[in-house]
């Protein structure tokens, strides 16, 4: 399944304009502008519960249309990290061993 998205990076601050040799940014888009852009692209904003599982709930929603499979996706992500530690261990804080981080990440938040 293909995940649709909008790349808003270039629109985050609006276009830069120059006036008398001074650069200034145009006003940022409003929330209404964002919703209109999303609607045009067939997308919408969805509130995801901020319960410590939000990343995995968001991915589950994109892949499966709802967030019910977030725990399975969490387990798959951690298994992938454990199988590829050279790709992930450098990004774990120095005060926590990689395996301890993986063990903690396996736990579904309540």
Describe it.
By secondary structure, the protein is mainly alpha-helical. The protein folds into two domains: 32 residues, no CATH class; 53 residues, Cathepsin B, Chain A, CATH 3.90.70.80. The protein contains five helices and two strands; from the N terminus they run ββααααα. Strands 1-2 form a two-stranded antiparallel ribbon. Helix 3 runs antiparallel to helix 5. The two termini are 29 Å apart. The N terminus is likely disordered.
What brief labels describe this structure?
2 strands; single chain; mainly alpha; disordered N terminus
Judging by the overall fold, what is the CATH architecture of the largest domain?
A: Alpha-Beta Complex
Rounded average pLDDT? 80
Helix-and-strand structural type: mainly alpha
Q: Beta-sheet strand percentage?
A: 5-15%
Q: Based on CA inertia axes, which overall geometry fits?
A: elongated
**Number of structural units classed as domains:** 2
**Distance linking N and C termini:** 29 Å
CATH fold topology of the largest domain: Cathepsin B, Chain A
Radius of gyration: 19 Å
H/E element sequence: EEHHHHH
**Secondary structure: helix percent:** 40-55%
The description of the largest β-sheet is: 2 strands, antiparallel
Order of strands across the main sheet: 1-2
Question: CATH class of the largest domain, please?
Answer: Alpha Beta
Low-confidence stretches: 1-19
Number of strands: 2
How many DSSP H or I helices? 5
């Amino acid at each position: 399944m293909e995940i649709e998205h909008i790349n808003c990076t270039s629109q985050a601050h609006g276009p830069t304009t120059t006036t008398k040799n001074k650069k200034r940014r145009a006003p940022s888009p409003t929330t209404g502008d964002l919703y209109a852009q999303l609607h045009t692209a067939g997308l919408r904003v969805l509130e995801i519960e901020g319960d410590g599982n939000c990343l995995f709930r968001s991915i589950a929603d994109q892949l499966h249309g709802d967030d019910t499979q977030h725990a399975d996706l969490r387990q798959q992500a951690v298994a992938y990290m454990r199988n590829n530690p050279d790709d992930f261990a450098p990004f774990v804080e120095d005060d926590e061993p990689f395996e301890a981080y993986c063990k903690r990440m396996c736990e579904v938040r309540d």
